[in-house]
Amino acid sequence: MPFLFGFVDQTQLELAWTPRTTTYEEEAIMYSMPPTRNSALSKANEEAFADLQRMLHDPQNNNVLGVVGAGVSVRAGYPSWSELLSIMADQVVSLDMRFVEVVNKLGMMQDVTWRAEEYRRLMTEDRYYELIRKVFGSDAKSIDQCIENLIDLNFRHVLTTNYDTVLERAHFQRRKQIPETIQWTNAFDVREFMYQATNGSYGRRYVYLHGRYNDPSCVVLTDRDYVQRYLLQNDAAAKLAALFSTFSLVFIGFSISDPALTQLLQQVKFSLGVGAPRHYAILALNTADDDELLVRNRLSNKYGIEPVFYPLDSSHEGLCDLINLLKEPPGEFPPPMPTMPRPSGPADPDDPQKGQWGGTNEADGYQLTAEVDGTSHEESPETFAKYLRMRGMGRRLYHIKLKVIGPTNDGIARFYLHPTFVPDRRDVSFRRGIATLDLLAYGAFTIGVEILETNTRLELDLSSDLVDAPRAFKES
């Protein structure tokens, strides 16, 4: 995607990419520094939170905009982005079972806006509009204390990419006032907003950047929507860029992955040049896999965002902990949240997950099971392609269905596979108490599973723990 507005000269580029003024020795110390307060997160994270807290409590600072993403609406019972794509996929399959194969292939695509585009095309426009109204139009969703506290934060205005009315209802529930809203497609209202946004007598506006459920034709969800809004309509990008340059933004429940908004943030960062980050984002961090300092430097130097992290889990309670604490006067930080330590090094280099996950397939009410069926690489071109990718030419291929059965209807099961799988780590959500993963393999190996919410570990050796598996599979 090209730059959305203007051009960046070489001087601006060099300034924008100027690293922080730290020596190699100082940076080496930062990378090797243990987490503070027995926490999985660093001292820099506490300092970022303290800075954000002070900014929101500064009575002289009226130039802060909240930017609210799907993470807040998920708390109220609406689907996440990935769940919405699954709903669309199910809708397509329900219309015609012959679409099962193409839907499965689309599910493996990384380009999520194009996936949504294809689902929209297959289900037809009328059904797509009906789905948007049905999924996001229901008001029978809960507005809890966390969302009410978000309304109380000192934001001049609130921008949102969500399609539902959670923020409107939370505002009314909290303040007993009907909120003022703006649709980004309403040229008159947007023009007034651009002129009046800093005016103290101009009350808070809730601005729907990507549309509202009651008018699906204006919703920005699929590839064509992004093209229409940000590539064919230059004024939309220019107005947002002006806001991003004028105000400090605080992203909440936002993954910093929206293709258009991240492009704009990067463009504004380049245009303004060197300087401390002017925006903040409250983000989940997978502390087991992601290096906090590397992620922090990327967001800061690429987008001008200072992140405030909380440890990732499916409940996202860490997000609410931070929102609730932001209401309090400066000086407090939430207690550290424990995270699961990484497993020790493998005892068997040929089966690296062996012995790393507790040696049992049952724990804390969860059970890991597997079914193995013989197949053949001649059965279909797709199977043969997978067969070749696994470099198992000339050997029999087997279908493995892994299941984690648990006492919960939500949450995430993380599967750790043999390193010949790419990727060798897969996150699967529980649906009706079961997380299912299908694989193709030509031999047995050990599988590890981590339940992120409970720190539960499960382990299953396909070569010794499956009584009914084909002998040739277990001995391969």
TrEMBL record:
- Spell out the Pro residues composition-biased ranges: 331-346
- Which segments constitute the Prokaryotic YEATS domain? 398-462
InterPro entries the UniProt entry points to? DHS-like_NAD/FAD-binding_dom (IPR029035), pYEATS (IPR046888)
Q: Which Pfam families match?
A: pYEATS, SIR2_2
The organism's place on the tree of life at top rank: Bacteria
Which residue stretches belong to region Disordered? 330-362
Q: Where are the transmembrane segments?
A: none
Q: Matching SUPFAM superfamilies, A to Z?
A: DHS-like NAD/FAD-binding domain (SSF52467)
Identify this protein by name: Prokaryotic YEATS domain-containing protein
Q: What species is this protein from?
A: Blastopirellula marina
